[in-house]
Amino acid sequence: MSNIIDSIERAQMRKVPRFKAGDTVRVHFQVIEGQRRRVQVYEGIVIKRQGSGARETFTVRKQSFGVGVERTFPLHSPKIEKIEVVSIGDVNRAKLYYLRGRVGKKARVREQRYGGPRVAEEIFEPELEEPVAADEPLEDEAVEAEAEADAVPAGE
Fold first, then answer.
1. b/e per residue, 95-131, with b = 16+ CB within 10 A?
2. DSSP-derived pairing of the beta strands 24-33 and 36-50
3. What is the per-residue pLDDT for 154?
4. How far apart are CA 148 and CA 20, in angstroms?
5. Of 24, 23, 31, 29, which is closest to residue 42 (Cα–Cα)?
6. What is the pLDDT of residue 9?
7. pLDDT band at 139 (very low <50, low <70, confident <90, very high)
8. Of 79, 75, 49, which Cα lies nearest the Cα of 61?
9. Percentage of the chain surpassing pLDDT 90?
10. Taking the model in full, what pTM does it have?
11. SS3 sequence, the chain?
12. 80 touches 41 (CB < 8 A)
């Protein structure tokens, strides 16, 4: 019986970026208002992740007009269009409930200073340069050729 439940849960799982408590994320969430659907972006600090598998949830906290607002999202919900990791936090706790009692600058989370193994491909995508054809001169060479043509000899 549990094999059937496991297979159904596995089918509902989606691919999500790696993030943990302390990271700042931007969640693009579908909101249904009557007949209209729109995407609402909710950005804040992840204060906890709990559960596992298809039932995993995460809670995001942000300050809205001076009031702390927390929202819990199911991680594998079809209503979540995408999750962007804005910055990686440097914290030593799995649950950041202590942020609830802090306001302003004291509610900030220190950002990780160096990449290390946590800098994933989902977060930073390397920019690929276009290859230059062999018969085309490089930009620097073209500028030098124009400068030589415009230059007046020193003896004249």
1. ebeebeeeeeeebebeebeeeeeeeeeebeeeeeeee
2. antiparallel
3. 56
4. 57
5. 29
6. 83
7. low
8. 49
9. 26
10. 0.66
11. CHHHHHHHHHHHCCCCCCCCCCCEEEEEEEEEECCEEEEEEEEEEEEEEECCHHHCEEEEEEEECCEEEEEEEECCCCCEEEEEEEECECCCCCCCHHHHHCCHHHHCCCECCCCHHHCCCCCCCCCCCCCCCCCCCCHHHHHHHHHHHHCCCCCC
12. no
Residue 121, pLDDT > 50, answer no
Is the Cα torsion angle 31, 33, 38, 42 positive or negative in sign?
Answer: negative
Q: What is the mean pLDDT of residues 114-126?
A: 49
β-strand partners of 82: 28
pLDDT digits (tens, 9 = 90+) for 54-66: 888 999 999 888 8
**Edge-first strand listing for the sheet containing 80-87:** 67-74, 57-64, 36-50, 24-33, 80-87
The mean per-residue pLDDT over the stretch 142-152 comes to 54
Average pLDDT score over the chain:
78
Give the residue from 19, 17, 15 showing the smallest Cα distance to 88.
Answer: 19
Alpha-carbon distances of 6 from 51, 80, 106, rounded to whole Å: 15, 22, 43
